[in-house]
Amino acid sequence: MFTVQEAQWLTPKVRRLLVRAPRVARSHRPGHFVIVRVHEGGERIPLTIANSDNEAGTITLIIQVVGATTEKLCALDAGESIANVVGPLGRPTEIENFGHAVLVGGGVGTAVIYPQAGALRAAGNRVTAIIGGRSREYVILEAELGAHCDEVFPCTDDGSYGYHGFVTARLKELIEERRDVGAVLTAGPVPMMRALAGVTRPFGIKTIASLNPVMVDGTGMCGGCRVTVDGKMKFACVDGPEFDAHTVDFAELTDRLSTYRDQEALAWNRLHEFTEAGAAARCKMRELEEAATGGRPL
């Protein structure tokens, strides 16, 4: 069992968990992820390791409620436990001196670029982060990135904070303004990463995307995370999850992400309509939200 030491809401439906996992923390590098099961027999889900502390033996997970399993995970509070945390998995980010490295994170994808920022800075890069959310309350890790980046540019779709527009538009402006961007690393929704690759391609800028296909075992055996890169089949869990964004078949990735949509909807309905566990999870979520906001809705 892996004990949750701290739990905090970052935005509505996005929760940060500090989890005791000494062996994972000891080997973690930027780009790594873990496979988590909330309880024995439960669904396996991949989660980026947003941070680690080798001395404390902890890792940080940032989770967005998108389905039944993530809701159960976000209902955990300090002192409670996760059944399984397996990792670190995947290939770590290839860190080198690009001169000026730009990190682009959309939503919870910002958790992926956060550990990259410190590593890139240590390698001698000038580091800029562009992070986005629907509105101000959905922009995460701005202060944390600021500790490692030369500049951080928040963007919001509705203009409520920072740059009014998509991260892709802000990136294009930055490239045209500075003319010194050596590499772009990105993580977030597939449409965002696909559009971002379209922005950098005409400039010939090296662009690395952290992909998020369906994963089950994290070893390449199940084949669920197949992606096509440069016309060849790859397994994101062992060959990635980071690939050259200019060679990724994003259309295929989009299709594959909908493979289990019906099953996910069924699991969500069971949690919310038919089970005592679902009722308990909803009550727990309300209690946690009220405790975090003093009774005000998030």
List the SSEs and their pairings.
Blueprint lengths: L1 E10 L2 E7 L1 H6 L5 E5 L7 E9 L4 E7 L3 H7 L6 E2 L1 E6 L10 E7 L3 H13 L3 E8 L8 H5 L4 E6 L6 E2 L2 H12 L4 E5 L2 H11 L5 E5 L15 E4 L2 E4 H4 L2 E3 L5 H8 L3 H14 L1 H18 L5
Helix pairs in contact: 5-6, 9-10
Quickly describe the structure.
The protein is an alpha/beta fold and 298 residues long. It has ten helices and 16 strands.
Q: How many helices in DSSP terms?
A: 10
- Spatial strand sequence of the major β-sheet: 6-1-2-5-4-3-7
Listing every helix as H and every strand as E from the N terminus to the C terminus, the arrangement reads: EEHEEEHEEEHEHEEHEHEEEHEHHH
CATH second-level architecture of the largest domain: 3-Layer(aba) Sandwich
The overall number of domains is 2
The rounded Rg comes to 19 Å
DSSP strand count: 16
Percentage of residues in helical conformation: 25-40%
Strand % is 25-35%
What does this structure look like?
The protein is of the alpha/beta class. The protein is built from ten helices and 16 strands. A seven-stranded antiparallel sheet has the order 6-1-2-5-4-3-7, with helices on both faces. A seven-stranded mixed sheet has the order 11-10-9-8-12-13-16, sandwiched between helices. It has a two-stranded antiparallel sheet with strand order 14-15. Helix 5 (167-178) packs parallel to helix 6 and helix 9 crosses helix 10 (276-293). The longest helix has 18 residues, at 276-293.
